[in-house]
Here is the input.
Amino acid sequence: SGYHHGLYDSVRGANKTIISSSSNAESAGSAQLMSFDDGGFTVGDNGDSGNYVNLSGDDYVAWCWKAGGEPVVDTSGTITSLVSANKDAGFSVVSWTGTDAAGTIGHGLSKKPELMWVKPRSTANSWVHYDFQFGGTHYMALQTTQASASNSTRWNNLNPDSKVFSVGNHVSVSDDGNKHIAYLWHSVEGFSKIGTYEGNGSTDGPFIYTGFRPKWLIWKNADATNNWVIVDAVRTSTNPITGSSSTLYADTSNRESDYSTNIDLFSNGFKARTDGGHINSSGVTYIYMAFAETPSAFTNSR
Here is the structure.
């Protein structure tokens, strides 16, 4: 159905929804994602507005990342943060209160984040996307189709390092007195890959090496106004990944569709099997993030 993506994390707490396909402020529900449990999560009866988790008769998909449990105070930066970090998996969830000024924020990882999504919680201000391929001088917005654009007020023209990332004085990243949330990743060999590829405009598209068969994949045309496209090997498990149940978009509330997406997921990467601005235009740069179907980087016990 045509409902927004609901995003939840244990740092903000259960039943607190933010939406990737909207700049809306965080909403507090009572019957959405009720709890984060060992081995999974519990949903409510969808008794309040949103239809994010349990509308009768609808199919849902959930993509889950494990951070580091209860958040800890991090004073590595000029702005104190609360951090839940999984260093092995290259993933952390970070919360802080804006100061209306540029500053640095501790992220809890052992390497530089390569991709970051930031959202102010209390106000209807934009998501902000950082990608290491374009660096701290550029940004995109997760809830829109906008291309990568230069701006100094989002990341203060600085790249993150192994301890902190930088924010400028824009309300999306440092709204005075407003809480913000960030999700950060870096690549882990055999588990995840963040990178770029260049389109060739052919039905025999470029092969992108990841070192594993992707189970979940998101990409975006960084040069033009195209959607954030998501496919996974759960909703569509065999190649080509195409058809009416193959594609969702992080920046819209659209129901799943094919969107002319035609892609193969191989044991060591992926390959576009169609052209078009959303996936494979000639000479266009695309960013992507992929996670392995069968990770070789570490065992489930870690």
Observations:
- The two ends are 36 Å apart (CA to CA).
- The mean pLDDT is 93.
- The chain is about 0% helix and 35% strand.
